[in-house]
């Protein structure tokens, strides 16, 4: 598709933070390319924001290749958002398949997408590309039962910082947004569809909503080109640490 609008790519745009980020970037005038595995959901959102829905599984190198092939040669913004947590078991009870799948999406998936989009970010029509990784407070803290997920998000932080060193001197900004509790499908996925267990995560407290994170992303990308917002940690007022929440 040829367009004079700046181009943004959002992974994991079928739900939660990614969907709201795609929506808000479209409101800012971006042509948004939405990637995720659930294509019908992407298509509904793409119709709403005149975006482009493309199937994407970030854990599959061939899927990433096919996705990227359909993007314009110049990409202004890449939001590496696809990912999430699986399970809450202690390391002594580690479910290896959870760890493998989390690593493949949150870490390798993010690195695959960054590698694949690098040449396109270098050609950003605005003159400055922008890579935004969605980390978590789990990139800064650990908590019992969160070993697999916190290891992944600590790795995301390491990748963000490595890219900032490796791409120094190139016209690409690199930012990381690290949310605390945001009410999305995150906990439903983590607890394999157990809606009651997922709802308990947010019981009696006021979590963030996806729009709170999307607004921060819009602010980060709309700074002047010479300004790089390295990292933002955003938590609900009711959360002091990953495992310390005030409930009424
Ligand atoms: P969500 O509602 O479950 O959304 C996750 C998104 O990731 C979905 O669109 C899902 O789409 C996509 N995804 C998962 N695996 C994928 C894969 N292999 N390939 C492509 N897309 C994939 O959860 P969310 O809260 O918005 O999470 C978004 C990001 O924020 C994640 O990286 C998460 O770790 C991070 N985060 C969330 C919170 C929170 O409290 N919610 C806090 C800190 C950080 P499909 O299933 O359709 O592929």
TrEMBL record:
Keywords: Oxidoreductase. It comes from the Bacteria. The keyword Transport does not apply. The keyword ATP-binding does not apply. InterPro entries: NAD(P)-bd_dom_sf (IPR036291), Sc_DH/Rdtase_CS (IPR020904), SDR_fam (IPR002347). GO terms for molecular function: oxidoreductase activity, acting on the CH-OH group of donors, NAD or NADP as acceptor. It holds the Pfam family adh_short. Belongs to the short-chain dehydrogenases/reductases (SDR) family. This is SDR family oxidoreductase. It comes from Acidithiobacillus marinus.
């Amino acid at each position: 598709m040829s367009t004079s609008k700046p181009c943004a790519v959002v992974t994991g745009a079928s739900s939660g933070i990614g969907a709201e980020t795609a929506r808000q970037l479209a409101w800012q005038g971006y042509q948004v390319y939405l990637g995720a595995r659930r294509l019908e959901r992407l298509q509904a959102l793409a119709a709403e924001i005149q975006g482009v829905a493309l199937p994407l599984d970030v854990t599959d190198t061939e899927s990433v290749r096919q996705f990227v092939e359909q993007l314009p040669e110049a990409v202004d913004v890449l939001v590496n958002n696809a990912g999430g947590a699986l399970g809450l078991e202690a390391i002594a009870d580690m479910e290896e398949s959870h760890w493998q799948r989390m690593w493949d999406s949150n870490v390798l998936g993010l690195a695959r997408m960054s590698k694949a989009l690098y040449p396109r970010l270098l050609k950003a029509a605005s003159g400055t590309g922008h890579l935004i990784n969605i980390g978590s407070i789990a990139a800064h803290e650990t908590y019992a039962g969160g070993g697999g997920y916190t290891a992944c998000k600590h790795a995301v932080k390491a990748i963000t910082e490595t890219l900032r060193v490796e791409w120094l001197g190139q016209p690409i900004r690199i930012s990381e947004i690290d949310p605390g509790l945001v009410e999305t499908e995150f906990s439903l996925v983590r607890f394999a569809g157990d809606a009651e267990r997922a709802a308990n995560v947010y019981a009696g407290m006021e979590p963030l909503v996806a729009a709170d994170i999307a607004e921060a992303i819009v602010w980060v990308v709309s700074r002047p080109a010479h300004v790089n917002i390295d990292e933002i940690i955003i938590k609900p007022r009711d959360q002091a640490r990953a495992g310390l929440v005030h409930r009424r």
